[in-house]
């Protein structure tokens, strides 16, 4: 191979490897104004694969997805591991409107946080399954999923101007507790014969100051231990992710490289490549192909 061919070959190698050097970090540390930390991610390959189908970042808006809809995430309390979402169709002290209800997917890695209260509004006391009749056409008790101590929540809600205009008796309000929505995590208001619901947390005496939304508790794993590999990755300015056929742990670095450990400067190029075998193989095959073509020229 003469000098001209050698120069062309070296240029081709640089051309092949240069995109890898300038690739930006795939997994971002925020979605809009919401900081994103493990176990959540901004796209496929980011965060924990168990959470990726449910918490999604689209057009810089973080949303929570279930089979009943897609709901905006209002905040994430990483210290207490609670994700808060809002259902625009629910009723609040400022606005009342019809709703279909809210449900969790049965296999989703979430549960309802203890401070979340569901109040079913405008329920048909003569036909709703959450009420039991005394046999004389009246209502003398409620089904166990209704909280007999929820009268305070109901009375405060029904005192709101938006709801009081409907002139509904307080008996048509029912507070769900414990908040498990049954084994299917399903709150079907049509089946319950209720027209709407409110979900709230951080209760105060003034319902207009209530925080309306649903708090969802999550765990990192069975023992709720923060993964050591992820902690090391984040300390090195990386973002925890996954990849490969078995969704193995990967640390996504600011350079665009994925490693199996961290992004500290002590990691050399070769180390970064060897930790992602498929990437190494792809680049070597390309380099070998160019070498063979130039050798035959």
TrEMBL record:
A Pfam family reported for this protein in Swiss-Prot or TrEMBL: GUB_WAK_bind
Signal sequence annotation: 1-24
The EC number(s) this enzyme carries: 2.7.11.1
Catalytic activity: L-seryl-[protein] + ATP = O-phospho-L-seryl-[protein] + ADP + H(+); L-threonyl-[protein] + ATP = O-phospho-L-threonyl-[protein] + ADP + H(+)
Annotated membrane topology: Single-pass membrane protein
UniProt subcellular location: Membrane
Keywords, ordered alphabetically: Glycoprotein, Signal
GO molecular function: polysaccharide binding; protein serine/threonine kinase activity
Every EGF-like domain range: 251-263
GO cellular component terms, A-Z: membrane
Record protein name field: non-specific serine/threonine protein kinase
Gene name in the database record: LOC107813806
């Amino acid at each position: 191979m003469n000098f001209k061919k050698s120069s062309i070959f070296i240029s081709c190698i640089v051309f092949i490897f240069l995109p890898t050097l300038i690739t930006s970090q795939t997994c971002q540390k925020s979605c809009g104004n919401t900081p994103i930390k493990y176990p959540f991610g901004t796209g496929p390959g980011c965060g924990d694969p168990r959470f990726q189908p449910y918490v999604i970042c689209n057009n810089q808006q973080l949303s929570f997805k279930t089979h009943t809809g897609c709901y905006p995430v209002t905040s994430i309390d990483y210290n207490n591991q609670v994700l808060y979402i809002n259902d625009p169709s629910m009723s609040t002290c400022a606005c009342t409107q019809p709703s279909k209800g809210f449900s969790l997917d049965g296999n989703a890695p979430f549960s309802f946080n203890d401070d979340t209260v569901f109040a079913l509004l405008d329920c048909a006391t003569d036909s709703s399954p959450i009420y039991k009749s005394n046999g004389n056409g009246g209502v003398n008790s409620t089904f166990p999923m209704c909280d007999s101590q929820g009268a305070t929540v109901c009375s405060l809600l029904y005192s709101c101007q938006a709801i009081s205009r409907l002139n509904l008796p307080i008996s048509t309000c029912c507070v769900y507790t414990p908040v498990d929505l049954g084994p299917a995590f399903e709150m079907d208001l049509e089946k319950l014969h209720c027209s709407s619901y409110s979900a709230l947390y951080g209760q105060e005496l003034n319902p207009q100051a209530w925080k309306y939304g649903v708090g969802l508790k999550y765990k990192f794993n069975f023992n709720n231990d923060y993964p050591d590999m992820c902690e090391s990755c984040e300390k090195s300015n990386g973002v925890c992710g996954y990849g490969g056929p078995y969704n193995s742990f990967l640390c996504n670095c600011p350079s665009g490289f994925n490693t199996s450990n961290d992004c500290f400067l002590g990691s050399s190029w070769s180390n970064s490549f060897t930790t992602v075998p498929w990437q190494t193989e792809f680049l070597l095959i390309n380099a070998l192909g160019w070498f063979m073509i130039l050798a035959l020229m």
